[in-house]
Design goal:
This protein has 73 residues and is mainly alpha-helical. It has helices at residues 9-15, 20-25, 41-48, 52-67. The termini are far apart.
């Protein structure tokens, strides 16, 4: 799974609610607003003056770790 700037915020949230803190940490606090259901990650970052590349890096890092197979114990 790769998160891209063209993705709708609510689609990412629907993939995994664990992404909420990442959005919050990066300055996107209005995840429940109506814009989140139709706004892309890139659009939201532009409106709020945020760095889309930083947010994408953190989101993709989250999904990479989540998708790693569990270590055999």
């Amino acid at each position: 799974m790769e998160i891209k700037k063209e993705m709708i915020i609510s689609d990412v949230l629907n993939l995994d609610q664990g992404t909420v803190p990442i959005f919050f940490k990066n300055g996107l606090h209005c995840l429940g607003c109506s814009m989140a259901s139709g706004e892309t990650i890139e659009e939201a970052c532009m409106v709020h003056g945020l760095n889309v590349d930083n947010l994408l890096f953190e989101l993709n890092s989250y999904f990479e770790v989540k998708d790693l197979p569990a270590a055999n114990v």
